[in-house]
Amino acid sequence: MTEPRYLADSTVRTFEATVERALDDRVVLDRTHFYPEGGGQPADHGTLRADGDEWEVRDVQKKDTVYHHLSGDRPAEGTAVTGELDWDRRYAHMRYHTAQHLLSALLLTEYDAATTGNQLYADRARIDVAHDRFGDDDLDAVETRINGLIDRAMAVRWYEMDRERAEAELDTDRTRIDLLPDSITELRIVEIGPEDDPYDRTACGGTHVQNTEELGEFEVTGRETKGSEEERVSFVLSED
User: Fold this and answer.
1) Burial class (CB in 10 A: 0-12, 13-18, 19+), 148
2) Beta strands in the chain (DSSP E)
3) Residue partners of 136: CB distance under 8 A and separation at least 6
4) pTM to 2 decimals?
5) CATH class of 14-85
6) pLDDT in tens, the chain (240 residues)
7) Does domain 90-237 have CATH number 3.40.1160.10?
8) Are 68 and 27 in contact (CB under 8 A)?
9) 55 near 74, Cβ under 8 Å?
């Protein structure tokens, strides 16, 4: 069973591991910092290296354990490998994930529009929210407000919390704990903003930056009606 380390420290770029299982086109490692696809965040890519050989990690999926899908042959069981993340890709996902949390919090607070879905990419992102229709003035205001929040250089932190305690102490409308399977009894909470009064606090199993100042400039790039009282908002972040 793989020990997932991608949430404990999302800044690690290289790590050592051992191949526990070698299957047709994928391997299971004893530990990993490769993030598996989930929660709207794409899988990490990168490489595994051992004794002069190199394998491209082209997909990572979590089922009963974490599977690393490789190109070409795969290393034998027991092989000691060095894993290296495609850091540009991972860091882009971290930036967009944190920005999505800010946007979801703002739309819920100021428009009573709860997020119903999201999808992140390395160069853009989108969220779906329960709302009738955003006008151009609304989206201009949202863009200005998000950039103001980014400029506040708010800290981002995460911690574990027992589910019963979380349901008793946190605003479940904002943390969306009710959407999680009952089998999940320990939650990972992500907060943005001051510890005594965070701007956003929600349950999340993704990777994030450590401060909003890492996000760059936020720009709304589109709005689309997805059905009765559901809107899709797309956005990009500058590289600055």
Assistant:
1) exposed
2) 3-4, 14-22, 26-29, 31-32, 46-50, 53-62, 66-70, 80-85, 115-120, 125-129, 156-162, 186-192, 200-203, 218-227, 230-237
3) none
4) 0.95
5) mainly beta
6) 899 999 999 999 999 999 999 999 999 999 999 999 999 999 999 999 999 999 999 999 999 999 999 998 899 999 999 999 999 999 999 999 999 999 999 999 999 999 999 999 999 999 999 998 999 999 999 999 999 999 999 999 999 999 999 888 888 777 778 777 888 889 999 999 999 999 999 999 999 999 999 999 999 999 999 888 899 999 999 976
7) no
8) yes
9) yes
Strand ranges across the sheet with 125-129: 115-120, 125-129, 230-237, 218-227
Asked if 150 contacts 212 with a C-beta cutoff of 8 angstroms, the reply is yes
Q: 72 Cβ partners below 8 Å, 6+ apart?
A: 55, 56
Structure tokens at 95: 């930036």
Domain ranges of the chain: 14-85, 90-237
- Return the structure tokens found at 134: 């955003």
* Distant-in-sequence, close-in-space partners of 35: CB < 8 Å, separation ≥ 6: 6, 41, 43, 44, 60, 90, 93, 206, 207
Quick one: tokens of 219?
């720009």
Return the structure tokens found at 173.
Answer: 């409308």
